[in-house]
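Field guide to reading this record: the first block holds the primary sequence, the second block holds the structure written as C-alpha cells, and the final block holds curator observations. Each block starts with its own label. This record concerns Metal ABC transporter permease, catalogued under organism Mesosutterella multiformis.

BLOCK 1 — SEQUENCE
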Amino acid sequence: MPDFSVFSDIFSFSFMRYAFFASICIGILCPTIGIFIVLRRFSLLGDTLAHASLAGAATGILCSGNPILYAIGYSVAAGAGIDLLQSRFPRRSDLTLAIVLALSAGIAVTLMSSGLLHANAESFLFGSILTVDRSDAIAILVLTAAAVLLTFLLRYDMIYVAFDEVAAKFAGVRIRAVSFLFSVIAAASVAASIKILGALVISSMVAIPVASALQFRKGIRATAVISIAVSVVSAIGGLFASYALNVAPGGATALISVFILLSVILILRIRAKITGQS
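BLOCK 2 — STRUCTURE
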C-alpha cells in the first residue's frame, strides 16, 4: 500500500515546490493552446511536437547544451515546418503531421540508441519531477504568460481560422500569419512541458481536458475555463501520485485526465437519462 503520509512534508523539498508551480503553469498552458488545436482537428499536433521536442532534447544532450532550449528550437522548427507543409497538402493535415512525426521520431530514436549521449534522456521521454529546477519553473511561467497573452489577443482570429478559413479570409484575417504564430506558440509550449510530463503523454494535457470540457456543450469561454480546471487538477494529481507511488508524473497525469473525461461522460449521460425520464 502506498504511504500517503508523505504529503505532510511534501513541500519541504525544493524540487517539489518547483514541480508544483510548474504543474499549475502547465495545467493552464496546455489547454490554452489545446482548445484551438482540437477545434482545428489537429489533436495529434501535440504528439508530433512532443517528438520534435524529444529530438531537440537529445541533440542538446549530445552537444552539451541546454536540452530545453534545444527542444524549444526543434519544436518551433517543426511547428513552422507543419505550417509550411500545409500549403503543399492542404487537404491532408494528417499526412503533414505524419511526415514531421516520422522525421522527429527518427532523429530522437537514432540519437538515444547511438550510445553517444553522456546523460540519460529518459526523463524527457517519461517525465520526471526530480529534474525540475528554478530555471525550468521560470521558463514555463514566461511561456505560459506569453501564450495566454497572445492567445487572448488573437482569440477572435484564431476562432475564425479554426472554424472556417474561407470565411476568415473574407473577414480580413491574415490566415498564414495567425497559423504560423499559433504553431510557434504551440511548439514552444509543448517543448517546455516535456520535462515534467514526458514526450509520450504530452497530448493528454493538450487534448483530453478540452475533450472533457466539450462534453458540457458550452461557449468558447466556458469551455476554456473548464478545460483549464480539468488540466490543473490532472497535473497536480499526477504530481502527487508520482511522488507517493514513485512513478513517472506523465503517466499518472494522463491516467487522471482520462479518468476525469470518462467520469464526465458517464455523469452527463446519467443526468440526461434522468432528465429525459422526468
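BLOCK 3 — OBSERVATIONS
The chain is about 80% helix and 0% strand.
The CA atoms of residues 41 and 162 lie 8 Å apart.
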